[in-house]
Amino acid sequence: MSKIVGRAAVHEDRAFFGQPRSLANIFGVEMWERFSFYGMQGILLLYLYFSAADGGLGIAQTTAAGIVGAYGGGVYLSTILGAWIADRLLGSERVLFYSAIVIMLGHIALAVVPGVGGLVTGLVLVAVGSGGLKANATSVVGSLYAPDDPRRDAGFSLFYLGINLGAFAGPILTGLLQTKIGFHYGFGLAAVGMAIGLTQYSFGRKRLPDTARLVPDPLPQSRWRGYAYVATLMIVVIVVLVLTGVITASNLVTIVIGLTVIATVAYFAVILTNRQITPVERKRVYAFIPLFVASAAFWSLYQQQFTVVTIYSDERLDRALFGWEMPVSWVQSINPVFIIVLSGIFAAVWTKWSSRQPSTPMKFAVGTAVMGAAFLLFLPFAGGAANSTPLLAMIGILLVFTVAELLLSPVGLSIATKLAPAVFKTQMVALFFLSVALGSAVSGVLAAWYATAPERLYFGVLGGIAIVLGLMLALIARPVLRLMGGVR
Fold it and tell me: Residue 1 pLDDT more than 50?
């Protein structure tokens, strides 16, 4: 009886644009976290490869792009750690809160510690903190809805709106500070943004449902010491490998890709062989595998906004506006503008169509193919001279990026919570983020190919591959849907 009452209460809570009131609180902390994250990332690649005279570190462009790709992969790879701590030790809500503190410290390190020392310290802290926050914020949003609540996808789309409000404002403001007074002031503004988000979240923590604090599979205290020893040993090994030159800036992205692939295979194996999950849950995990592959392919193209598209915008894009040159980082705010405009439309469409909306596999298929089409739109401008690509053309291309993103990304977050076995609730979300980690890291490797390959070949091949993958997923959409056991 209590479960029935609880579900009814969830359905009746419509205080935030027809969604549960607590969604507004998570919306806020994610908005400010994305402000700081994308604000910092908007100027990060430029900081790495700009010369010392221009305030940068003077790192080779291909190596710098690889570092950004490795960092992006590291952010999503660390969702495993955040999810594991949530599911075994602290619960999603507490990990979210502590992760926000770690992120703020990372941005402070980037702002006040000069040179490579500040870069390494800051990026490690931001990557670990962002990984913990991302997986658990998504899980907490999922806890606001009953499994059969038709508002679920719409709620995740509104949550995605909060992400992109922050993603829009961050590069605009940090880019202005970077061009006017220097990179470290831009990083400092990112720290201020995270502090605001942390403060806002602190005031509303008590309103969240108890399920957000639940530890689904508590680790026995007798095993805590053993895990602490393993964690300490891993940190020591990493430090030694860095100091001895085994891990370098140039091979870091390859290492991240390898670790992500190993973690993905291990994660699927652990979940599928777990005796606590039911046969239906196991089939749903199998259904997630082709979605994972499509997601990784999508993100390997999409995340090039922070590698190839940034370099392209610096070298090819005509950024002149009425006699004033727009900062490169502002290009990264174009996509969030479209997200802000279109996310509400997508949410309304999914809500109106309800059970008649396309299945998740079909959304993934179309999203992957549309992302490939976006890359083909670069072809008319590829290989041009400096300032040869009109700003309006880049805006149009990023509009197509946005449509692809809305078909796959918020839907991916939602399906991860719906397909998750009961004892792997947060860790299933982390598994989705592993696809983002893999795609992000691969985007750094692809940037090295971009530096040597003809642009028409680069954009044509990658766009074509994505379209073919989308078509293949569409062909197997029905068998995948059957494996999902009633989940659409």
Answer: no
Query: Six-digit token pair at 392?
Result: 């309006």
If you compute the radius of gyration of the chain from its CA atoms, what whole number of angstroms results?
A: 22
Q: Each residue of 440-454: b (16+ CB within 10 Å) or e?
A: bbbbbbbbbebeeee
**Total number of residues shown for the chain:** 488
Give residue-wise pLDDT tens across range 32-44: 888 888 888 888 8
Q: Supply the range of the domain harboring residue 85.
A: 17-483
Q: How many domains does the chain have?
A: 1
**For residue 146, is it within any domain?**
yes
Residue 325: which H helix or E strand, with range?
A: strand 324-325
The pTM of this model reads 0.80
CA separation for the pair 341, 406 (Å, rounded): 11
24 part of a folded domain: yes
What are the phi and psi torsion angles at 382 (to 5°)? -65, 145
55-63 contact pairs (CB < 8 A, 24+): 55/178, 55/182, 55/183, 56/183, 57/115, 57/116, 57/119, 59/249, 61/311, 61/451, 62/447, 62/448, 62/451, 63/249, 63/250
Return d(Cα 89, Cα 218) in angstroms, integer: 6
* The two structure tokens encoding residue 102: 């770690």
Cα 389 to Cα 316: distance, rounded to the nearest angstrom: 6
Let me know if residue 488 belongs to a domain.
Answer: no
At 419, list the tokens: 């397909």
